[in-house]
Fold:
Amino acid sequence: MSDATISAYADAAYSIATAEGSTSEVTDELFRLGRLLQSNDELRGALTDTHVPVERRAQILEDLLDGKATRTTVAFTSMLVTAGRIGDLPAIADELANRAAAARGETVAEVRSAVPLTEAQIAQLAQALKARTNIDVTVRNVVDPTVMGGIVTQIGDSVIDGSVRTRLNQLREAF
Structure:
């Protein structure tokens, strides 16, 4: 999907969530669902398989989100399924997160770690990133078992790799 189409969907989600006063919740829910779609081949396949009737795909998504997401998130993602765009949710969610952060005068840092970070760790990391970038940072934690240990942080095009794997590779190359 083109950047313009991704932006249009992100604009729509942002406008709806802002109008309903649930921007933070919807942004977080769409981000987490987008990462789930990226990491779960079975779910992604079920929601994007054009051989499955669109009503059934939408029902799968609604059942998955039932009681776990706002009405806005459920409606928006159901619309993406109906439009055949649910596979683009990770990119749309990223754009939405960036837009919501920019509206608050912040930037988004995607932090990959082997285990979920605690709220205290996220707050400490946000402070450290703010000191480094001179801008408030919203940290989005993505659990990625391939990290092994440590964290990998991406802010825009910049990557700060503090993973154990990278440090081991650096040591291996040094000797």
The chain has a mean pLDDT of 91. Strands lie at 106-113, 136-143, 150-155, 158-163. The radius of gyration is 18 Å.
